[in-house]
Write a structure and sequence with these properties.
alpha+beta, binds zinc ion, 8-stranded mixed sheet, 8 strands
Length: 135
């Protein structure tokens, strides 16, 4: 079961100027920035109630975010849903006919295990499953 929208990811060209823009929009400060080596992105996070907004800037022209911006411009890139057991959810969703992009969950930003579902099986929406990594 997907429990709630954990965050919405927005692809941006310049994270510094976007941080300023979204600070003004939300009327609050971001709470963290983080480089995610596995995805070759720099991220920043804003907390809004129970959900977060993640800004993503590519660090490498071959990263998924750079390719997304090249094709479609800046904008909403993915929606992330919180799950309790990412391995069980992946099994369940595969049985339902969904395809994952990465074969195994991997370490994402903000202390999460993450896995993306292929948008061709989800009406064009890139969906991220995420599970908090417990220390
Ligand atoms: Zn995300």
């Amino acid at each position: 079961m997907l429990k709630k929208i954990e965050h919405i990811g927005i692809a941006v060209k310049n994270i510094q100027s976007s941080n300023e823009l979204f600070k003004k929009l939300f009327g609050k400060e971001l709470y963290k920035t983080e480089n995610v080596e596995s995805e070759k992105v720099t991220t920043s996070f804003f907390m809004l109630g129970e959900s977060k907004i993640e800004l993503l800037e590519a660090q490498d022209p071959n990263s998924a975010i750079a390719k997304f911006i090249e094709k479609r411009g800046e904008g909403i890139h993915h929606m992330a849903f919180e799950v309790d057991d990412i391995y069980a959810e992946i099994e369940r969703l595969k049985k339902e006919g969904f395809e994952t992009i990465n074969p195994e969950p991997k370490k994402g930003a903000d202390n999460k295990l993450i896995c993306f579902l292929h948008p061709k099986t989800t009406n064009g929406v890139l969906i991220e499953l995420c599970q908090e990594i417990k220390a």
